[in-house]
């Protein structure tokens, strides 16, 4: 074999190894159970009262549970209460943008930058700012009336509050089984890590949403969510691997979603399906990201569209979701290249530094 074909085979083997590598997990089995309850209980309540659409909004707030750190009780409760407030504020901002569509792109970009700064400043682990931005993006494209705004935000807050209570009960049990870790020290407020990276990430997330609107995609809110999920890699290589996982996992997940959406689902069955998906995601996400995405895809589709089951055929919905993923990944790869390019950092970072007082720079 020639040199170029040998290198190509080696590259293909390396990519395959990265794609199929499964990590070890030290999570307690009670954690996925609690996560499923945080996602599913609001839906069960909504099904009981005949308003599954209310349960879906509260279920989005239940995503606060996944931010539960493995730290002492007093620290994890402060973190979760702060996350519940931030999730509610992001969703409220998104819903307000629904009444001023022209502000959706700058608002999502600004929120992404600010939330990413805070997540990095306080050394919060995965999923980072993802669900806060997802709540804002979904809220921006949720058709509500002005008089329904307080109710929508209140429903999400109730879901987030329930997630905090579930996390408290789970923590009482988990801390008996395993000693907590020390809370992470806040990161030094360095310009490059906290400010520059966050602003660039926010700019490309906003760019992805603007591109989705320009292309006339039917559900543009999934594009910035996909972009943010991919661009957060620590290196360009990590972003590339994450993008492959995202695309392949979404492709497989769309088949799962198509099969689920083809079933005669009712409010109660939607609730139990979402609980099952949440359980599987929390088991697999720390082991293999691509495998988790295969179940994240149907879960996010149900969260956004379960209230309209039967009104939309599964085929067009699945095709739209894959188009959203492809556009989001393409913008994320471009953003990651800029983010990890030294010349870009110097060219853009130098004028940005002039806007910040020197005493705050490190």
From TrEMBL:
<keyword id="KW-1133">Transmembrane helix</keyword>
<keyword id="KW-0472">Membrane</keyword>
<dbReference type="Pfam" id="PF13515">
    <property type="entry name" value="FUSC_2"/>
</dbReference>
<feature type="transmembrane region" description="Helical">
    <location>
        <begin position="194"/>
        <end position="215"/>
    </location>
</feature>
<feature type="transmembrane region" description="Helical">
    <location>
        <begin position="152"/>
        <end position="173"/>
    </location>
</feature>
<feature type="transmembrane region" description="Helical">
    <location>
        <begin position="33"/>
        <end position="66"/>
    </location>
</feature>
<feature type="transmembrane region" description="Helical">
    <location>
        <begin position="319"/>
        <end position="340"/>
    </location>
</feature>
<feature type="domain" description="Integral membrane bound transporter">
    <location>
        <begin position="208"/>
        <end position="334"/>
    </location>
</feature>
<feature type="transmembrane region" description="Helical">
    <location>
        <begin position="293"/>
        <end position="313"/>
    </location>
</feature>
<feature type="transmembrane region" description="Helical">
    <location>
        <begin position="78"/>
        <end position="96"/>
    </location>
</feature>
<feature type="transmembrane region" description="Helical">
    <location>
        <begin position="129"/>
        <end position="146"/>
    </location>
</feature>
<keyword id="KW-0812">Transmembrane</keyword>
<protein>
    <recommendedName>
        <fullName>Integral membrane bound transporter domain-containing protein</fullName>
    </recommendedName>
</protein>
<dbReference type="InterPro" id="IPR049453">
    <property type="entry name" value="Memb_transporter_dom"/>
</dbReference>
<feature type="transmembrane region" description="Helical">
    <location>
        <begin position="102"/>
        <end position="122"/>
    </location>
</feature>
<feature type="transmembrane region" description="Helical">
    <location>
        <begin position="221"/>
        <end position="240"/>
    </location>
</feature>
<dbReference type="GO" id="GO:0016020">
    <property type="term" value="C:membrane"/>
</dbReference>
